[in-house]
Design goal:
472 residues, alpha+beta, single chain, 18% helix
């Protein structure tokens, strides 16, 4: 059977053409190359007078007035709902602008790819705009093929026709064009018109944990702001009766060879605990990294470059695709997977949504605004979106924020929402804190003795803890 469950379309996305050489894709690649100068859905097509492929019947460039036209499927002359352009009459009342709906140029081609549930034998690709993000056209037999995230052989041949459709970022990165999306990935950036040929993301606000400072639009720009930047946003629990996400866990750990972390990893493995109690797991090696500082002034390891590499290895393993959630666990953290599953179930995360969990209730400046790196939890869809757009995060965000700052910033930039599990863990160096039954993890436990002591305490085995050290 084919797993047709599609991640919810949180971001506006454009289909990325499959690689050349894939059967049946040559014509599609040529078509897309020929229309690169045309306008996308929602952008001003007054000068291009043509629209990129999309929609079931293609988009037409319709004029509002001499200064603005837009790619739409249909257009009714007159005032459109939500119209913000207009004038004020003598009585001081706002009079919205009317659309002429004059057709500029020819109608564009329909979406070249198929929607989930449609037969994709001819198109051999899945439409990002119609919910096909992360999907591949899988063949059932010579008479049917459909878009799905995965395929299990049996009644289906599961032959892949064409390439998987990646999740598009749906926004412009800092300094890049946002003409099609009217949205910037980076926090504090706005989508601003420079001139008739360039609309891009420029920083208009500098944000830190404690302050926000306005930054002027560059001199010489037109200055019209057509969109804002992304920021973190909270996802609400699924409504009663709605489908919720599962709780299966893929966990991974990276530890530094020839360091105290080796012993911590070994005791976890010997006791089938932490990542070894998850549904599936991986272990990777890390290396030493330099020191850096948060904007609070507290020193922390700037291990972002290390973990970008670790994540690349994790993505290459592909095991994350077999579980509902991916969990990164530090060697000096004691994770209790069964408790984490109960926490997740209690949150009622909506099925198919890209989500990360805020994992602590500390002061925002000390707790990285609710997201610390010792135990990081991401839904499968969040990891897929990261996989398809990680280069944008790397180039645009840099590696100076520390691992947890980087991955939180990247998830926020890619439109991944958060849910709050404030009792997942709170930093406490004493294994005595491990008697707190409401928590799913404990950190940091820097010695094998304290790590094992903590695990014992969670199982009801009593130990005497004096000044943060376990007497075993």
């Amino acid at each position: 059977a084919v797993g047709v469950g599609a991640a919810a379309a949180l971001v506006r996305a454009a289909h990325v053409a499959p690689n050349k050489g894939t059967e049946g894709n040559a014509e599609l690649v040529t078509t897309l190359a020929a229309e690169t100068s045309c306008s996308g859905l929602g952008s001003n097509c007054a000068s291009t007078k043509c629209c990129k492929s999309g929609g079931k019947n293609g988009f037409q460039c319709y004029a509002k007035n001499e200064n603005w036209a837009e790619c739409l499927e249909t257009c009714e002359p007159g005032v459109h709902e939500g119209e913000k352009e207009g004038t004020y009459n003598a009585a001081g009342q706002f009079v919205p602008a009317k659309w002429s709906c004059a057709e500029l140029g020819a109608r564009g081609d329909p979406d070249p790819c198929s929607a989930p549930g449609e037969d994709c034998r001819q198109t051999k690709c899945c439409s990002s705009a119609q919910g096909g993000n992360g999907m591949t056209c899988f063949e059932k037999n010579e008479n049917w093929a459909s878009c799905a995230a995965s395929c299990e052989e049996g009644d289906w041949s599961c032959k892949a026709l064409g390439n998987r459709t990646p999740y598009a970022a749906g926004c412009g990165w800092a300094g890049k064009s946002c003409a099609d999306t009217h949205l910037c990935c980076n926090v504090g950036f706005s989508c601003v018109v420079k001139d008739a040929s360039w609309t891009a993301c420029t920083q208009t606000k500098k944000k830190s944990t404690w302050a926000s400072v306005n930054i002027p639009i560059p001199a010489g720009w037109d200055g019209t702001i057509v969109g804002g930047g992304r920021d973190e946003y909270q996802i609400q629990p699924a409504a009663e009766g709605a489908k919720v996400m599962g709780t299966s866990l893929y966990c991974f750990m990276a530890f530094l060879p020839d360091s105290y972390e080796v012993g911590l990893h070994d005791v976890a493995k010997q006791n089938k605990a932490s990542i070894y109690a998850c549904d599936s797991y991986d272990v990777f090696h890390s290396w030493k990294s330099a020191k850096a500082g948060w904007d609070t002034g507290e020193a922390t390891l700037s291990n972002t470059d290390v973990f970008i590499n670790v994540w690349d290895n994790m993505l290459n393993s592909g095991k994350f695709l077999t579980a509902d959630w991916t969990v990164k666990v530090d060697a000096d953290a004691v994770l209790l997977p069964d408790r984490l599953k109960s926490h997740i179930a209690g949150l009622r995360p909506p099925a198919g949504m890209p989500i990360y969990l805020k994992n602590n209730a500390m002061d925002p400046g000390l707790g990285n605004n609710g997201f610390l790196g010792a135990i990081e939890v991401f839904s499968k869809q969040a990891v897929e979106i990261y996989r398809d757009n990680k280069e944008g995060c790397h180039v645009s965000l840099g590696i100076n924020a520390g691992e947890d700052g980087y991955f939180k910033g990247c998830m926020d930039a890619l439109g991944v929402g958060f849910m709050v599990d404030a009792q997942l863990f709170n930093p406490d160096r004493s294994p005595g804190a491990c008697n707190l039954g409401q928590r799913a993890g404990f950190h940091p436990l820097k010695t094998v003795n304290n790590w094992k002591c903590c695990l014992d305490i969670t199982k009801g085995i009593k130990h005497n803890v004096v000044y943060g050290e376990c007497q075993m």
